[in-house]
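Sequence of aldehyde dehydrogenase (NAD(+)) (Glycine soja).
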Amino acid sequence: MASRILSTLHYVCSSSASATKRCLGLYSHWQRSISGIAASVVADVEPSIAPVQIDQSQLLIDGKFVDAASGKTFPTFDPRTGDVIANVAEGDAEDVNRAVHAARKAFDEGPWPKMTAYERSRIILRFADLLEKHNDEVAAIETWDSGKTYEQAANVEIPMVVRLFRYYAGWADKIHGLTVPADGPYHVQTLHEPIGVAGQIVPWNFPLLIFSWKVAPALACGNTVVMKTAEQTPLSALYVSKLFLEAGLPPGVLNVISGFGPTAGAALCSHMDVDKLAFTGSTSTGKRVLELSAHSNLKPVTLELGGKSPFIVCKDADVDAAVEASHFALFFNQGQCCCAGSRTFVHESIYGEFVEKAKARALKRVVGDPFKNGVEQGPQIDSVQFEKIMKYIRSGVESGAQLESGGQRIGSKGYYIQPTVFSNVQDNMLIAKDEIFGPVQSILKFKDLEEVIRRANATSYGLAAGVFTKNMDTANTLMRALQAGTVWINCYDVFDAAIPFGGYKMSGQGRVRGIYSLRSYLQVKAVVTALKNPAWL
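Predicted 3D structure, token representation.
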């Protein structure tokens, strides 16, 4: 690890002797800072054999699994080792065009939007049943490709995906317009119509869960879909797409393209025959998605982007419960969560106690092969994310934050990082401002509500927030003052199919899940008919 850090320091500095000397000084400071820091519990990181075979690596276009038009493939990697799992078809603009053409034909000429809503709901329900039947295989693929623990994938995420598809299957035949009174002899009604071809792009941190957030409401409304998966995690979406075909989904209704953002993603966002876009990912990429939409056919866009969410622990909070919840809020999914509670604000009267208990909890966190029982934390997704996180850990030390635990790599292969806790973090430090997307908890101190509200809102993000207090007046003050799309009170990361999710400010626009998501996939048409001699108005 030392050689890699030293290489990085040399890389970011100039080649002059004085600059190199400064870099070596920073490296020595970092080494001194982490010496003696306690480490977390480490289970065996030697990779076990994944209990699943990969039998689907082609694109899904018009109901058939096909190679990319170019014949190209790209590797998807095992985060536990960096080894190749499979080579997957690399879709590009030509493949996107084929997929959009298939989706357009399925929408304009196919049976899907012309089915009764009840028939559509039955197909979605059959898919949910098949997914539930194949829960363990899908969870194993998700773990192998992303590094999340198998227990999390099998016991939490895949059941949540099943639940969400069933939720939207129930909505399919309950979407309807209104009859509207008008000033005059007119009959006025509104029709809620499917928007058409939906282009969707999902991230790598929750590949199948966010797949469900996008695909389920789109299909329930009668739309067709072209899905672009993350290049890091393409496998689970391809697997479940086969189950959709088995459930009876007509050809062209769901098309899945694996590929890269600058090629396949840009082509999808720019396509003139795509009627709507939904994107989850970084704020910088979200801005690019908006640009491409504006420069093409001005298609509406739903964005679920980054965050730097505050987790506020008030002076009257149950400290033990708050420590456990804040630990989960940050370290869940290896810290790779857009709504992670990554700024832990603790009242000054309980700050010392909280820090010691947060450190102790981090030291108990079990890191290891995500397929093994009892493991709480697997590897980060890839080398790029690994190096980014390590850079922020070094930045925290160099800027004067107190490294309480962790801070180093685990093992010599794969992308495992010790659960890391910083105290004495200041608002101007990078670890308090930037979205790290890793297992790094930053604990800040505050004096009163007015101060913590100001500091919590002093960010360009506004995805989520957490509040721990026993006082409902305090909770009511904070829930209304915090500029965030979701506020969890005495809990965190409570997700449900019916609860909307989305951000304020640069954390996005629009909402996913619940009834609010349906609005993104419907057009409202007003129909006005003149009446002759109406009996009533």
